[in-house]
Design brief:
heterodimer; A: 248 residues; alpha+beta; Phosphorylase Kinase, domain 1; 3 domains; seven-stranded antiparallel beta sheet; B: 169 residues; mainly alpha; Rna Polymerase Sigma Factor, Chain: A; Arc Repressor Mutant, subunit A; 7 helices; 71% helix; globular
């Protein structure tokens, strides 16, 4: 169907390329019959091009500089926190060397270690195991996503009988990490700790047992995960797979 | 796909900078605007909902900073067109340069509200919904401002073209 007149809105959307495929077809039919409208649209598109062509193109490096300067002025307190964390990490590394371990822990091992410590600290809390309860799940996910700088969801562990209790924010080196805690009908608790940082590596499941807790940890691109609990390895492994399946 | 704050921020910086330039017509001023805007965004990032597009939110902040300074403080002045060295890319022909200048000259005579609306779509690359959100106006209002801005531009540019032809003959 060819309309005899084009609505003003349709003309503007045609100029800005904001028509649906179907509208585009009917527009072209109309323009074939109405060359004056075609000319007007073409002229106005050219005006947009001319406006754009006067504007300088900033270089990627230049924009990165601006971003870094904004980072510095926006978060002086974060930087102090970061250097404090590096100092603590330094102490930790020094201690490991002195104790004759010989093996300076990798980033990943440190992350898994911190995850275990966090779980061990909060698992015995009766009143405040989490900061935000599962009843406010949307808020919890939005808040933690904001703090991590990347969208994160709390996986459902329905099949294994564990349900989400809630979550909290934790420091992870200089960065933020998210902790989700789960509980089953027997009152047994698990924690999933996630952090979003650099790196594109993928590392499959690794395991570490310490102080009666088993930690399953892995890396998926910028994301690092640790699942901590006091269950046998087969159970933990199965739950970790369930989590992994929902997070990719 | 839900993109993180940082990824979206990096992706919209070029458009944001160009929008800042189109408002101030000065590289240093555009730098200042973008830097302040990003700084404000980083401070307020908790208020941004993941999954929502970041660009309109940033454009709104940038526009607020621009309005606060450039309209209220006499120290901040949008650079006069004649002070802007070359207004077109180096590869342009002399004729195209004249055309670019004519359009920008005409843009100056477009009322401010209409100009900001047009530039939000044409330069910042926002969709109508996003531009309406950034400017804090209903979509219908945005559309009519853009439409009027374009009509004014066309009328002005046509008028100068007619004058040019007359002066040649």
């Amino acid at each position: 169907m060819t309309r005899s007149t084009l609505s003003e809105e349709m003309i503007q959307r045609a100029i800005d390329g904001q028509l649906s495929a179907q509208e585009q077809v009917s527009l072209e039919q109309h323009l074939e019959a109405h060359p004056k409208d075609a000319e007007r649209i073409a002229q106005m598109q050219r005006q947009s091009d001319l406006i754009r062509s006067a504007i300088p193109e900033p270089s990627v490096a230049h924009l990165r500089q601006l971003r870094e300067r904004a980072d510095r002025t926006a978060a002086p307190s974060l930087r102090v926190a970061a250097s404090a964390a590096i100092f603590v990490l330094g102490l930790g590394a020094g201690y490991a060397l002195h104790s004759g371990g010989g093996n300076v822990p990798s980033d990943m091992a440190q992350f898994a270690q911190a995850a275990k410590n966090a779980h061990a600290l909060y698992v015995s809390e009766v009143l405040h195991p989490v900061e935000v309860a599962a009843s406010q799940k949307d808020h919890l996910q939005a808040w933690l996503s904001n703090r991590l700088g990347a969208a994160i969801i709390a996986p459902q562990l329905g099949e294994s009988g564990y349900r989400l209790m809630g979550g909290r924010l934790l420091p992870s080196g200089a960065q933020a990490s998210a902790l989700f805690m789960y509980e089953n009908a027997q009152g047994d608790r698990l924690s999933l700790i996630a952090t979003h940082g650099g790196g594109q590596d993928k590392q499959s499941f690794r395991y570490k047992e310490e102080d009666g807790y088993l930690t399953v940890f892995w890396q998926d691109g910028p994301w690092r995960y640790s699942l901590v609990g006091a269950r046998p390895r087969e159970t933990m492994d199965q739950i970790a797979r369930e989590v992994h399946g929902q997070l990719i | 796909m839900i993109q993180s704050f940082d990824i979206q921020l990096e992706a919209c910086l070029p458009d944001l900078w160009r929008y800042a330039w189109s408002l101030t017509r000065d590289r240093d001023a555009a730098d200042d605007l973008v830097q302040d805007c990003v700084e404000r965004a980083l401070r307020k990032r908790l208020l941004w909902m993941p999954g929502r597009p970041l660009k309109p939110w940033l454009a709104k902040m940038l526009l607020n900073i621009f309005r606060d300074r450039w309209r209220k403080d006499a120290r901040y002045v949008t650079v006069d067109l004649d002070q802007v060295g070359t207004l077109a890319a180096p590869g342009c022909s002399a004729e195209e340069r004249l055309e670019v200048r004519a359009v920008w000259r005409a843009l100056e005579t477009v009322p401010r509200d209409q100009r900001e609306a047009l530039l939000a779509v044409v330069v910042a690359g926002l969709s109508y919904e996003e531009a309406a959100a950034a400017l804090g106006i209903p979509k219908g209002t945005l559309m009519s401002r853009i439409s009027r801005a374009r009509a004014k531009l066309k009328a002005d540019v046509d008028a100068t073209a007619v004058t040019k032809i007359r002066s040649v003959t």
